Amino acid sequence: MSGTTFYLCLGVMLWLLGLHGLLRLRQTLRRIMAINVMGSGTFMVMVALASRDGHNDPVLQALVVTGLVVAVSATAFALRLAVAHQPRRSSRQSTREPGE
Questions:
Q1: How many Å separate Cα 51 from the centre of its chain?
Q2: Where are the alpha helices (DSSP H) in 51-96?
Q3: How does pLDDT run along the chain (100 residues), one tens digit per residue?
Q4: What gap in Å lies between CA 56 and CA 43, rounded to an integer?
Q5: What Rg, from alpha-carbon coordinates, does the chain have?
Q6: Rounded distance, CA 86 to CA 66, Å?
Q7: What topology does CATH give the domain 3-85?
Q8: Which residues, other chains included, contact 16 with Cβ-Cβ below 8 Å and sequence gap of 6+?
């Protein structure tokens, strides 16, 4: 098995693992993490395809770098939306001691 085939299979497995998490999990944070795992699998496949036949394809490498920047930005935005969507507790509830 060549290195390219290994990384292609690993990228596909990461993508499928992320898809499984996206479909099975209900917590927002875990779903965001599953989407990030899917993105990592996609990037791994693209890097494996960029380095096939012994020469590197600079276009695919540039797409991966750009995709990483977009993925970080989209994750930050999704986390901010998840925090904004959570119901807020009143200050009176958060300062009460347990058992009162």
A1: 23
A2: 58-85, 91-95
A3: 788 899 999 999 999 999 999 999 999 999 999 999 999 999 999 999 888 877 888 898 999 999 999 999 999 999 999 999 888 876 665 555 666 5
A4: 15
A5: 20
A6: 31
A7: Helix Hairpins (1.10.287)
A8: 41
Cα-based angle 21, 80, 72 (whole degrees, multiple of 5): 65
Q: Determine the Cα–Cα distance for residues 94 and 67; give it in Å rounded to an integer.
A: 40
The domains of the chain are located at 3-85
pLDDT score recorded for residue 57: 86
Distances (CA, A) of 10 to 23, 46, 62, 78: 20, 12, 21, 26
78 residue type, one letter: A
Cα separation, 51 vs 59, whole angstroms: 11
Q: Look at the chain and count its residues.
A: 100
The span from the CA of 74 to the CA of 68, in Å, is 10
